[in-house]
Design brief:
The protein is α+β, with helices and mostly antiparallel strands and 580 residues long. The chain has 4 domains: 5-72 and 120-193 and 294-358, FAD/NAD(P)-binding domain (3-Layer(bba) Sandwich), CATH 3.50.50.60; 76-119 and 198-292 and 563-580, 2-Layer Sandwich (D-Amino Acid Oxidase, Chain A, domain 2), CATH 3.30.9.100; 378-438, no CATH class; 446-555, 2-Layer Sandwich (Enolase-like, domain 1). The longest helix has 28 residues, at 347-374. It contains 17 helices and 29 strands. The chain is globular, with a radius of gyration of 24 Å. Helix content is 35%, strand content 24%. Helix 1 crosses helix 2 (56-63), helix 11 runs antiparallel to helix 12 (379-392) and helix 15 (489-498) crosses helix 17 (527-539).
Length: 580
Amino acid sequence: MAARAEEFDVVIIGGGPAGSTCSTLLRKYNPNLKVLVVEKEKFPREHIGESQLPPITPVLEEMGVWEKVEAANFPIKIGATYRWGASPDLWDFEFIPAKYFVSEERPSKLTAQRRMLAFQVERAIYDKILLDHAKECGVDVREETMVSDVLKTGDHVDGFVLGDGTTVRARHYIDASGNSGFMRRALGIDITSPTSLRNIAIWDYWENAEWAVNIGTGATRVQVLSIGTGWIWFIPLSPTRTSVGFIVLADYYKQRGITPEEMYNEAIAKEPNLQKLLRNATRDGKVRTTKDWSFYSNRIAGDNWYIIGEAAGFADPILAGGLTLAHTGARQCAYCILESDRDPSAAKWLKTNYERSQLDRVKQYIRFADFWYAANGQFEDLRETTKQIAADAGLELNPREAFRWLSLGGFLLEDVFLPAVGGLDLLATKEITKIFCGTSEVQWELNKFTHFKLNLMGATQEKVPIYHQGRVIRAEAYRRGGRILPIVMLFKSVADVLRTQQDARSLHSAFVQMSDTFARQGLPGSIGQLYGTLETMLIDNWVTGRVEAGKPTLNFDPLKYLDPTIHPNRDNKDMAGSAG
């Protein structure tokens, strides 16, 4: 009897957030597509990676699933509380200042406030919500179904063979299989691990732990607490359930020669404030472990295939970027398929931009994580580490120059809307650098000059993709060397102002007027973000500055216009000073 064969437009291996996001958006914008998701497990199933960042919220909204996620009553993530580096003090990073959080009865509507926040999710529940929603959108979802083989001819995928012998064929194939990278490995694509960090994660779940802080109805911050040998996470997942884990260097774990259970208990014992939060809680009692090694795939798009989610790359969880990379990358992949179906001649351009942007993004998360970990060492060690980080970015700098480059925002990813990485804009990265390294090294470059000029000399024009309402729009951009200046959103606003206003006083007046206009229209573009964009363009030499005698400089002080999103913790003074 001949093996059965089935035909689809798109076949995806893996039903996690990346697979669910991509398949849902494909069906939303083209309901005629036959989309198959093959998932080896039966949902719900446990999974690590519970803490989100705000860029996920608009993706959930676009998928039409945000209300279902909100109805699950996951804690609202307003930010995180850290104890890191040499200081025993706690400090907070908040997406919006807690004092401005408006408490609402839950489940609530998707307000402007909630668009700036995120969730902390129990993945067993969250992933099932997303996969079930994909089914409701018309995706053929087959759980407990293995892919046993990938049929291929060179770089072309010919089909997947399922565990029951069925061959499924499609026009597009997607690997969303997570860390296993099933299709990636079958295609012989290597991975690169550009960091010396080799950690393992050890964790368990607790019932009825106390939250470190309650903000309004259902909002809190996650806790990230360094204890010298590693760091502990404390992530509330529901009103009663909390994830508590420990990240430790793999070499240190091997040297100790103790069990994961013993290592976990030892870490908890070193953190008395954590013990207070867990004093009335009970553990599941099943310690889980996984390796925690940053990597990226050397290719993530080919002849008729894409790689998305963790199969494409993984960055250390200190920045909580895993789910953000999965959702946003899967969305971009869906758009590439939709647009290439409309215009096959655009396929190469779409895939080139997908591969560049997604690999750049995961590399930047990895680089930022390296910087973050380096801040736990001695100051001079940090300078040496930044030299290597700069070298990875193609720069030959001595340690002091490299440190200055990094603290000025050298690890920022170009984004078509706002220069940011890991949910942090340039203002936030400067504040973090001050915490890690002191204020003397962190200055605003734009405050040195009286006049500014847009600098496009030696740049070539090209187009960058904007992903909007199911279409890929080609927007104007400039490329010089490895840097891209997209002429959209805040970058376009700043560039337009510089064409007519170049002295500091006129520039400031234009920024004030522009930020007021954005605020009335409900668009991003605070004066701090406009100055942050100018600073980024100045650092990347898209803007040049000069000093004219007797003329005023900008003298920009972000705290005059913005409440700091990064500040000393004020929740509970007795939680400070217990680094253990």
